[in-house]
Amino acid sequence: MSNIKIAPSLLAADFGNLQRDVEMVNQSEADWHHIDIMDGVFVPNISYGMPVVKAIKEHATKPLDVHLMIVDPDRYIKTFAELGASVLTVHYEACNHLHRTLQAIKAEGMKAGVAINPHTNISLLEDTIKDIDVVCLMSVNPGFGGQSFIENTYEKIRSLKAMILGKRAKTKIEIDGGVTSKNAKALVNAGADILVAGSFVFKSDNPTQTIHELKEIVHE
Ligand code: DX5
Ligand code: ZN
């Protein structure tokens, strides 16, 4: 359990002080910068685009974990590679040819992630699991920060973990949405490897300390 990663989601950062917030993550015990890209079509919200990711990259010292909540993500794989993404996650529900998309992400030198919505069954990943570096289990409906965690996620983590072990895959499990100090340990116990946390980190009085607390909880 010593390698559990914490990925603060910059969606909850103060965009007027983005450099400050990116530097806070740099100096904290966090592992990745989680970057949410929303197109207003796949999800009802629009977040930010390439110029903002470029600005984040100029200050970030940790890997960029880019979560694309967009239709037809294949069109932007090369762009996000050039912007410096280390992990590029596409939505299962947005891909007609997921296997091809995963190969294209890897061909650009990035780790390939697949996010699945709360309504999407884990079993649909069975035929691609060995090609997926990170499965991002959405524990809220994607599109907004600050939503309540969906409890059914624990069962999905356990099923996914069993599939990964059964297939001898090396896939990591990331949980995205509603993560707090209250559910972090239980998520890790169920099999999570990476926890994304937006509001819980950035809306706290001391984000650096909050990241420290999350790290302590998951490593207890
Ligand atoms: C939701 C995004 C999340 C979001 C999480 O669509 O994918 O990464 O920022 O925010 P919290 O932690 O506030 O639920
Ligand atoms: Zn996300």
TrEMBL record:
A divalent metal cation binds at H34, D36, H67, D176. The keyword Metal-binding applies. Pathway: Carbohydrate degradation. The keyword Ligase does not apply. Its EC number is 5.1.3.1. Binds 1 divalent metal cation per subunit. GO terms for molecular function: D-ribulose-phosphate 3-epimerase activity; metal ion binding. InterPro entries: Aldolase_TIM, Ribul_P_3_epim, Ribul_P_3_epim-like, RibuloseP-bd_barrel. It catalyses: D-ribulose 5-phosphate = D-xylulose 5-phosphate. It is an enzyme of class 5 (isomerase). It comes from the Bacteria. NCBIfam families: PRK05581.1-4 (NF004076), rpe (TIGR01163). Catalyzes the reversible epimerization of D-ribulose 5-phosphate to D-xylulose 5-phosphate. This is Ribulose-phosphate 3-epimerase. The gene is rpe.
